[in-house]
Amino acid sequence: MKMPLPDQSVLEKRDMLVRRLKEIVQNPNGVIDQEAGLRAFECDGLSAYRQLPMVAVLPETKQEICEILKFCKTEGVNVVPRGAGTSLSGGALPLADGVLLGLAKFSKIIEIDYENRCAVVQPGVTNLAITDAVKADGFYYAPDPSSQIACTIGGNVAENSGGVHCLKYGLTTNNVLGVEMITMDGDIIQFGGKHLDAEGYDLMGVVTGSEGLLGVITEVTVRLLKSPKHISAQLIGFPSSEQAGECVGKIIGAGIIPAGMEMMDYYAIHAAEEFCHAGYPLDVEALLIVELDGPEVEIEHNNQAIEKIAKECGATVIKLSQSEEERLTFWAGRKAAFPAIGRISPDYMCMDGTIPRNQLPKVLARMGELSEHYGLRVANVFHAGDGNLHPLILFDANIPGELEKCEEFGADILRLCVEVGGVLTGEHGVGVEKRDLMNEMFSEADLKQQQRLKCAFDPDGRLNPGKVFPILHRCAELSKMHVHNGALPFPDIPRF
Amino acid sequence: MEIFNITAEDQVLDLLQWALSNSKRLAIAGNDSKVALGRPMDVDATLSLSGLSGIEMYEPAELVMKAKAGTLVTLVEEELAASGQQLAFTPPDYGPLLGQPAGLGTLGGVFVPNLSGSSRIKAGAARDHLLGVNGFTGRGEAFQTGSRVMKNVTGYDLCKLVAGSYGTLAICTSLTFKVLPKSEKIRTVLVYGVTLEASVAIMRDALSSVHEVSAAAYMPAVIATKTGIDYLEGDAPAVALKIEGPAPSVEYRCTALLKLFEGQGHVEELHGHRSRALWKYLSDVRPFSENLKSNIWKISIPPSNAPAYVKAISSALSGLEYFLDWAGGLVWVSVPEGIENAGNTIIRKNLKGSGHATLIRASEQLRKEIPPFQPQNPVIAKISERIREGYDPQRILNPERMYPIVEI
Ligand SMILES: Cc1cc2nc3c(=O)[nH]c(=O)nc-3n(C[C@H](O)[C@H](O)[C@H](O)COP(=O)(O)OP(=O)(O)OC[C@H]3O[C@@H](n4cnc5c(N)ncnc54)[C@H](O)[C@@H]3O)c2cc1C
Predict the structure, then answer these.
(1) CA nearest to B190, candidates B118, B275, B122
(2) Nearest in space to A80 (alpha carbons), one of A144, A4, A153
(3) CB distance from B1 to chain A under 8 Å?
(4) What is the pLDDT along chain A (496 residues), one digit of tens a residue?
(5) Best substitution site from A68, A87, A106, A352 to test ligand 1's pocket, by max atoms within 8 Å of Cβ?
(6) What CATH number matches the domain at B286-369, 3.40.50.20, 3.20.20.70, 3.30.70.240, 1.10.260.40?
(7) What residues does CATH 3.30.465.10 cover in chain B?
(8) Separation CA A246–CA B337 (nearest Å)
(9) SS3 for B5?
(10) Rounded Cα distance, A49 and B219, in Å
(11) pTM of this structure
């Protein structure tokens, strides 16, 4: 993985830049330029890649952000926004010649508005803090990435994060009503608010999931939902993942959209069970957790239907949670899958492709072959309902060459996802990790179309360069147009 | 003016090349059911996509369908219904509202302007269901964005840019979208005789309950009477709450809601057939489809602002009629003809910066004189213009249909 070469002329004026940034940022500790302090920012959740930023700034007001961005634009300095740094794709990886713009200080909940069932929050508020603030009144914020105790809502919007309940409640993009953003020109703009839909283009829609490349998110209005009264989970074990996959398809085919539908394979089940004793059966090849929420009668109705389908599909274990405690135990294993894998392997890398669900058997079989080929184990956790795979590749970075082998294996898995009609990333973002695989999914022409959007927001390419796109074309080049000699060509089109 | 009836994708490319090299400006249409929406355009030819029709892929167990942009929504809905599925955002048919026959709307005609019906508050908008797009930009380049899977964050989400662009950025030839199971049962809880303020409070309480209300509307007495639906003709204003799902669940939730609101007014329950008729009637804005002379505004606001807003505009514009959908977040307003500028200033000024108003129906002259789409913040207007510059540098696609060209 290569990052753009640092701009020497920027590095040469580092002292001046630091001095001026200290003038902009009021907090005496708000500009970090010493190595010891910068270490805290050297990587995000994808810790295989590390880079110290040239300087880190932690502004406390919007005005400061405006000034910082305007200053960086004038000086030709790159900016990398950062929330909590839990990105799994290297989206918040610093640049050697860049300013790391930390938003952690923006951690206030500005308003909770039950009249309109929404909350207005600063970008550094953690995902879980939103739900915590409204829980007592019976509300919650639906998207729940596993990292929710740490990750920020600004990061969630930038990554369009998901979670285990996306199937029924959608991703971040479906749960955000408004976004305030500061452009690289230092303009504060508001998309949406407490009302629905955009008056013109849906710019909030494109900023969501833009991985910090279009602007700095400074305020988010999220939709609040009433917490369901009843929740239940079924644990369903199968002798093969084909059968589990079939069961998932049939549940949805029967018109049931569970709140969550997760799947784990043999390795993941064993690692999780060993780690936190969730009571998972160990003699199955695949395990489903199917969660339903809503009124009790509905849950009962659907649970019966699901049990019947599961039996038809050959389930050998069916366990219905009998209490809230047991339900949480079912989830404990799934939620601890990553650390559990971390225990049985020195290092692991989490992939994130999405596939059409019916391709699951094929993909799992091919993954098995690849695992043998590379000599690396792989454990699978899987948002089965929406086809989002999280293969965890186990490796040991201390063995020379293993990281590279793991990267190649991961790339092969993602190519496979695209090959069967899926995509490179379902919720973790492209970042630096999948940047060089973008050509597997998009033609050069399609990538250019995407970059034209970038040009409308940040024509100099100052925000988070080196991420998402394998090559960032210059906007002047993208704006050129080749007009063919187009004579009226179609005697064959019927006309009036 | 020439009309080109496209029957195959590659013809679009040829036409674009011709238009680009001869500086021809094009109106992009499906079945013309919404030509009268937006700023009047100065174009040299119309490109009609209604011939580009057909379902290309449908996998019910994967909850996904792909179809050509000119496919009739009614056809898609029939095909889905055969597998017990539906478009959950309840695509509206604005045809009759705009003086056209019903049933002509195409897929492109709902996804590209991002039009959603009453269930939008729970199911999301058309844009939330759009997964992938194939088409051509105003540069005469083919493009593809998104995919066929539900969860995808690979690159920018250009589907969001397409939905709501009214054909000003690209010509869509195929759309891939999420479909969902059709509910086994639908019912509607009605609460009669409530005031505007009380209605918004009832809708708030309904949506803040655990009963998963999927649509909520308020009809003043005149509107309730117009519906022609039994139980609504009593000349009393009514709140309507839509409940759907498996039969035992619907029964349970209806009973709970009836009980919750019985103290607020007379309560009643509509069953499946009447419920479906009512929600379609409201989604399609049929209350304002009879008298085509009045001017129609679609106003999106924070729901709790609705009562004060409606009071303010009603007292300033005599003869105004309205009803609320989206739990108060959507105000449909009919302004009688003859009122200056269709009440533009009053309608927009009273928003006080929160929300937006779109003039959905008005004479060509009026749509020239006042901006049909809510005027934008200059920075956003500039970014939007730069986006247009990127995808349609010669402004040949539905030129200025949404906004006049601004300096960039
Ligand atoms: C253990 C673990 C489990 C996880 N589980 C999930 C999961 O279930 N689902 C899921 O979707 N993700 C998951 N993630 C990934 C990650 O938590 C999400 O991507 C999250 O949204 C990142 O938020 P953050 O605040 O940490 O952002 P960061 O990592 O700091 O930044 C992420 C990206 O957003 C940009 N950014 C951050 N803040 C802003 C802002 N204010 N304005 C503009 N750009 C900004 C950054 O430049 C970067 O590109 C997991 C991560 C870990 C470590």
Answers:
(1) B275
(2) A4
(3) no
(4) 889 999 999 999 999 999 999 999 999 999 999 999 999 999 999 988 999 999 999 999 999 999 999 999 999 999 999 999 999 999 999 999 999 999 999 999 999 999 999 999 999 999 999 999 999 999 999 999 999 999 999 999 999 999 999 999 999 999 999 999 999 999 999 999 999 999 999 999 999 999 999 999 999 999 999 999 999 999 999 999 889 999 999 999 899 999 999 999 999 999 999 998 999 999 999 999 999 999 999 999 999 999 999 999 999 999 999 999 999 999 999 988 888 888 889 999 999 999 999 899 899 999 999 999 999 999 999 999 999 999 999 999 999 999 999 999 999 999 999 999 999 999 999 999 999 999 999 999 999 999 999 999 999 999 999 999 998 889 999 988 776 666 665 545 555 4
(5) A87
(6) 3.30.70.240
(7) 1-182+376-408
(8) 59
(9) strand
(10) 59
(11) 0.96
DSSP state of A323: S
Amino acid in position A439: N
Residue of chain B minimizing CA distance to A358:
B62
Q: Using the Cα atoms of residue A439, residue A143, residue A243 and residue A302 in order, give the sign of their dihedral.
A: negative
Using a CB-CB cut-off of 8 Å, the residues of chain A touching B15 are: 489-490, 493
A127 touches ligand 1 (CB under 6 Å): no
- Rounded Cα distance between A270 and A243, Å, is 19
Residue A224's identity, in one-letter code, is: L
d(CA A402, CA A398): 8
Residue A451 Cβ < 6 Å to ligand 1 = no
Domain with CATH 3.30.70.240 in chain B: 286-369
| Element counts in chain A: helices (H) and strands (E) | 18, 18
- Candidates 3.30.465.10, 3.10.580.10, 3.40.47.10, 1.10.10.10; CATH matching B1-182+376-408: 3.30.465.10
Which residues in chain A have their CB less than 8 angstroms from residue B155's CB? 430, 438, 441-442, 447, 450, 468
* Ligand 1 contacts CB of residue A143 (under 6 A): no
Burial of A100 by CB count in 10 Å (0-12 exposed, 13-18 middle, 19+ buried)? buried
| Beta sheet of A230-238, edge-to-edge order | A317-320, A230-238, A286-294, A260-265, A378-383, A388-395, A347-350
- The CATH number of B185-283 is 3.30.70.2190
Give the distance, in angstroms, between the CA of residue A285 and the centroid of all CA atoms in the same chain: 28
Burial of A25 (C-beta count, 10 Å sphere; 0-12/13-18/19+)? buried
Letter string b/e over residues B255-287, b meaning 16 or more CB atoms within 10 A of that residue's CB:
ebbbebbeebbebbbbeeebbebbbbbbbbbbb
Q: Which atom of ligand 1 is nearest to the CA of A171?
A: 11
- Residues 103-162 on A with a CB inside 8 Å of B are 113-117, 138-139, 159-160, 162
Q: Please provide residue B81's backbone torsions phi and psi, each rounded to the nearest 5 degrees.
A: -60, -35
* Distance from C-alpha of A91 to C-alpha of A80, rounded to nearest angstrom: 9
How many beta carbons lie within 10 A of that of residue A368, not counting itself?
12
